[in-house]
Amino acid sequence: MRSSSHVLPLGVLTALLLSQVCSGIKWLSISHAPASLHINQTQHCKLLPGMVSSQAQLCRSNLELMQTIVTAAREVKKTCQKTFSDMRWNCSSIDIPIDAPKYRPDLERGTREAAFVYALSAATISHTIARACTTGDLRQCTCGPIPAQIPEPGYRWGGCADNLQYGLIMGSKFSDAPMKMKRAGSHANKLMHLHNSEVGRQALRDALVMKCKCHGVSGSCSIRTCWRGLQDLREIAMDLKIKYLSATKVVHRPLGTRKQLVPKDIDIRPVRDNELVYLQSSSDFCTQSEKLGSIGTQDRQCNKTSLGSDSCDLMCCGRGYNPYTEKLVERCHCKYHWCCYVTCKKCERIVERYVCK
């Protein structure tokens, strides 16, 4: 008779299957790894939650890289929440619990919110790796290559360029791994996530700009040493937020010889490479709904004088708002003393704030 000691309970088996099906960005839960954890042994990979088998294999063969990926996961969460702090959906769902078998509904249903998170995650992991090459935190890569074109007179190539090419290669290898598994959800969702991840990486390529440092007698800047460097992640996130606001709803239907994602309302053209796409319409995020993944906007702070998305009218969905006062203690009456320090006094002021009913 076959022993039952090795048979997994149905609930555990279901959770394991769901974690494989719905794990496209579950790797972000490695942001919960203890800050004291230094990944320098292969067994440390077992302490990082949310990874599929190919990601775990990449961890074991690139231990030094994983420390950077953990940093990237934390950066995704922080950047997403900051970028959407003025909107009803404030990216709270990105804080994926370690033991959750699947995402929160707003990230699982193929919404425009999921589109943004996948794009930002792909951009952030490659950005963090590229920067780590520059700072010397990764020994397996160096500065980016010197551009082939000859600079203008008064300019010269130098410094240490961000190694975007290495960041893109290793970042995509890790972040796209879950979508390339056999159990990666529906074909439509897989195509959507892979497309939006590539949009994130394209935004990163567009963010590679020339940065220069001046040299010369008495700051004359007669010579500028220049290199290719990435813009800050918050600027890339704002670019992706604009794409989020103009995202295209798509359907999965035959186009040519195979099924592809095509715009729902204007399906005479294929999806553009630089546009975020989504399959399901979102909640308005006004009220709490476990089913839709909305935490609502009750008790959210709003701006009474704003005309934007953080205004009390829009943030509170017409329910009204309550005022309260807050005492702020700030530095004031600062005075510079020769040489070389500044002294300040502390001033108190009362400010009025507003929260949604």
Describe the protein's architecture and organization.
It is globular, with a radius of gyration of 24 Å. A hairpin with a 4-residue loop joins strand 7 (288-289) and strand 8. It has 357 residues and is of the alpha+beta class. The protein has helices at residues 10-21, 53-61, 63-83, 105-108, 112-135, 164-175, 187-206, 233-245, 312-315; strands at residues 155-157, 208-215, 223-230, 248-255, 258-263, 277-278, 288-289, 294-295, 301-302, 321-337, 341-356. It has a three-stranded mixed β-sheet. Strands 5-4-6 form a three-stranded mixed β-sheet. A three-stranded antiparallel β-sheet has the order 9-11-10, with no helix packed on it. Among the domains are: 102-296, no CATH class; 322-351, 2-Layer Sandwich (Endo-n-acetylneuraminidase fold). The protein is 33% helix and 21% strand. The termini are far apart. The protein contains nine helices and eleven strands. The model is unreliable at 1-22 (pLDDT under 50). Helix 5 runs antiparallel to helix 8.
